[in-house]
Amino acid sequence: MATLSDLIPALSLFTQLGRLSPTQPLRTLIRTTGNKLRPPQLRSFTPTIKRAQQALRQSGKAGEHQQATIRWERSRGHRPTIVLGGFVPDATEQVFLLRGFLLKSGSLYYFNYPPHGFSNDMLFAQLDDLVEELAELHGQKPVIFAVSFGGGLLMEWLKRARLTGRKIDLNGSIIVSPVACIEDLLAPGEAKPATLLGRAVQPYLDGSATPKAVEKSRTIMLKMFEAGAQNKEALRAIMSRGELHQLREAVMGTIRNVNITGACERIHALKQMEAPGGYFSPALLPLSDAPTLILYAEKESSVLVDRSPTRFALETAHHAYFPHSTCRLITNEGGSPVQHASLIFHCSNFLPAISAFYRQLKSRKAWSHA
């Protein structure tokens, strides 16, 4: 799709290209360790355990076109990380500069969403099977690294597990700029969306989306990326020419490949998610007892509405949802403001909190209710 899937990255990633802060040693370190010294060796992951997926297919509630592609990057560590990306880029690009750090803890499993369809049920079945396989065959509990729409998927998955009385045993979870309900993007009762993102999402809510509308938003996205890519000096501050080319081709490929069916089904998946305040109940909370790090950017306004229900719930009552959690605001003192889910162009701002979280998991220190 070219609306919600494509305009989120335009606002949260590429519009920053002309306003990056000066080169910092840490940025260079991230870039080097991220790809140059450890080139990606991605493999397609074929699960051994498929019980949840098989049961779903037999029920007829989801099809093959709605199945995510899981890519796998091997590590000798014993604490794997499962990455759930936002609408765009794919998970493999979402942690483009963080992957070298994440691989120190364990293997990486990237969930890349299908371009021609989407199903919450299928994605959750795939997560169930993967978590079960890691536990049964490898004796490992994963960390879930969820970004934007991926954060909403994580919370919905955990909520559904609670509804059925199942316990999902995780090592931890990291949630960055979560989008967990449609009200996070469009304020209820708003006559006309105030943002470009809102105007792009609107047609998919009332059924008026057309191939022409998809192509128009796709064109906007591509132009925004190309305009940002002209600032060569700013780009060199965070990644090499080869890394930029790799990122550009991957993101643009995703933009082109998502069709109108994929667009509509992703929006439908988001509409199915209940705002966190709607299940603020002892019967459903907490969602998980695992250590959880919740990160918001200092400038979420390009994507989230001012009264985002998810942000309100997690900033005011995150311990109710995740008892062993910390909620932090990521800022960039003296530089360009950190944007929604900006894990690429503000990687150096996010990394200290993320690395501290993994150190705590490794050392098994008592989690602080910050």
Radius of gyration from the CA trace? Answer: 19 Å
**SSE topology string:** HHEHEEHHEHEHEHHHHHEHEH
**CATH fold title:** Rossmann fold
- Outline type: globular
Structural class: alpha/beta
Number of helices in the DSSP assignment: 14
Name the CATH superfamily assignment: Alpha/Beta hydrolase fold, catalytic domain
Number of E-type strands: 8
Taking the sheet with the most strands, its summary is: 8 strands, mixed
Low-confidence residue ranges: 1-26, 28-34, 227-231, 365-370
Helix content class: 40-55%
CATH class: Alpha Beta
Describe this structure in words.
This protein is of the alpha/beta class. It is built from 14 helices and eight strands. An eight-stranded mixed β-sheet has the order 1-2-4-3-5-6-7-8, sandwiched between helices. The longest helix is centred in the middle third of the chain and has 19 residues, at 120-138. The model is unreliable at 1-26, 28-34, 227-231 and 365-370 (pLDDT under 50).
Task: Quickly list its features.
14 helices; Rossmann fold; disordered C terminus; disordered N terminus; single chain; 370 residues; globular; alpha/beta; eight-stranded mixed beta sheet
How is this fold's topology laid out?
Blueprint lengths: L3 H9 L12 H12 L6 E2 L6 H9 L9 E5 L7 E4 L6 H4 L4 H4 L5 E5 L7 H19 L4 E5 L1 H15 L8 E5 L19 H11 L4 H18 L3 H5 L4 H17 L2 H13 L19 E6 L11 H13 L3 E6 L16 H17 L7
Parallel strand pairs: 3-4, 3-5, 5-6, 6-7, 7-8
Antiparallel strand pairs: 1-2, 2-4
Helix pairs in contact: 1-8, 1-9, 3-6, 9-11
